[in-house]
Design brief:
Layout (H helix, E strand, L loop, with lengths): L2 E3 L5 H13 L4 H8 L5 E7 L5 H14 L20 H11 L4 E6 L19 E2 L2 E3 L11 H12 L14 H18 L1 H4 L3
Antiparallel strand pairs: 1-5, 2-3, 2-4
Length: 196
Amino acid sequence: MVYVGIPKGQADQEEEVLKTIQDGDSDELTIKRFTESREKPGALWHIYAAKDTEKIREFLKKVAEEQGQENPVDHDPIHDQSWYLDRSLRKRLHQEYGVQGWAIVQFLGDVVFIPAGAPHQASTRVHNLYSCIKVAEDFVSPEHVKHCFWLTQEFRYLSHTHTNHEDKLQVKNVIYHAVKDAVGILRANESSLSRP
């Protein structure tokens, strides 16, 4: 979070932001960062474990059907970014599916790392508390290559007009270049590796 713009002379907005943070299920330490330390909150995130993805997808389809919406085969309620899980939907998700996420308030200067495959509100609209600028960077770590491959496969089943249809992660290229670099380093140090 590189910038948070707080308008001057709008005292009621501070109360509204506090209420949003509290309603967002934030912990007491986070609330104190805002109320006592006077740090600048930029965005409220809700992040879920990757293992709960199918449960969340099933829940969102269920809610859509209850509201009379269609669930086309080539669309995905998570990747479509058309839902924001407010407090009542988060509570219902926990009660009906046993899924509970983490509420994270991103303050000015904070970094939020989201593991590959972990559904999060940013994929369905992050809740901005004030005007803010965030810098996002996708990367593939060795621990999450499996999830990245899985996401790439999910993207392929989306409609051709979907914004996530293309392979943005380019997992195979990342793996190729990582292996190429590792082999290059091993070859460069081959003589020192063969000594007892």
